[in-house]
Amino acid sequence: MTPLQLFPEQIANVLGLEGLLGQVVGGVIGAVFVAVVMLSMTALAGPWAKRKITAAFTDRFSVERVGPWGLGTIIVDSVRLLSKELIIPDGVERPSYDLAPLILPASAILGFAVIPMGDLGPFNIHLADPEVGLVLVFAFASIASISLVMGGYASNNKYSLLGSLRAVAQNIAYEIPLILAAMSVVIFAGTLQLGEIVAAQQTALFTIAGFEIPAWYAIVNPFAFVLFLTASMAEIGRNPFDIPEAPTEIVAGYQTEYSSVYFVLFYLGEFLHIFLGGAILATVFLGGPAGPVLPGFVWFIIKIWAFFLLTQWLRSAIPRVRIDQLIEIGWKGLLVLALANLVLTAVIVGVIV
């Protein structure tokens, strides 16, 4: 099997399947594998890792009574939440109310379909590599805002509606600088294909004392990396940009009227989008699955967990901004800086390189 073969093709070859049947079976098995890995990480992150990390940063005790290191909390919390009564308030707009919790996690899972995750043994964990992969992953991630709007509007609750409106305003204000920052990488790489963007970062930028510094775009263009990281925090709704929920202001925002399995789906989708944000950041700026010694897939997982750790660190360290401050930072700050970075990158690549 060649390294350039996609994961579904490799699975079809191993099973001895050809043609349409091989594509379908390989695609389904590959998609299930990626989904199981991401859902397992989310199950670990939500009920357990989030609490442990927050407790460590704030010098408090966390979950520790059920199972070793409190890992049994994952099962206990899952059973507790799923066994709660599903309360549907009067006056909700159905089926929008029911579909919203499904769309949020589904949009994140779709995003992983085009992310190159590196090698794991003989397999290349990459489901699809379309020529417009970067555009597709942003499109899939953007579907999340539709879910928040549907849930907030359909809940027949003023706090939910306020949360959904905030989500739209935040998404528009920060998605533009997010994409502009990513476009500076496209100018360097000359492609929207994520596999090619990762491949372009595999060479050495320069060597110091015999140690090769990789040509990761976070090193080549650190300003764009900081802009992208900041906008990503807003896109996934992490502190200091968790305005759509803002428990101290609007109860729980768009998810105020959700309980039981519907709340679990929203919670699941929130953490899946954190991991998707980390995956996009790692792919575009941190060499994707590149790293020494360990398999590429392991490095990919390490990088997105590092991003998750950063989100929890900021959650504990930085206070939430007001809605007016959030909009001002996006439109008057990040957008202007992202445009300047894009123009400067185009000049450097067009004139100097």
UniProtKB/TrEMBL annotation:
It is a multi-pass membrane protein. InterPro entries: NADH_UbQ_OxRdtase_su1/FPO. The keyword Membrane applies. GO terms for biological process: aerobic respiration. The chain crosses the membrane at residues 20-44, 99-117, 132-155, 176-195, 215-234, 264-287, 293-314, 334-352. One of its GO terms (molecular function) is NADH dehydrogenase activity. This is NADH-quinone oxidoreductase subunit H. Keywords: Membrane, Transmembrane, Transmembrane helix. It comes from Halalkaliarchaeum desulfuricum. Its main location: membrane. The gene is nuoH. PANTHER family: NADH DEHYDROGENASE SUBUNIT 1 (PTHR11432), NADH-UBIQUINONE OXIDOREDUCTASE CHAIN 1 (PTHR11432:SF3). It holds the Pfam family NADHdh. It is found in: Membrane. GO terms for cellular component: membrane.
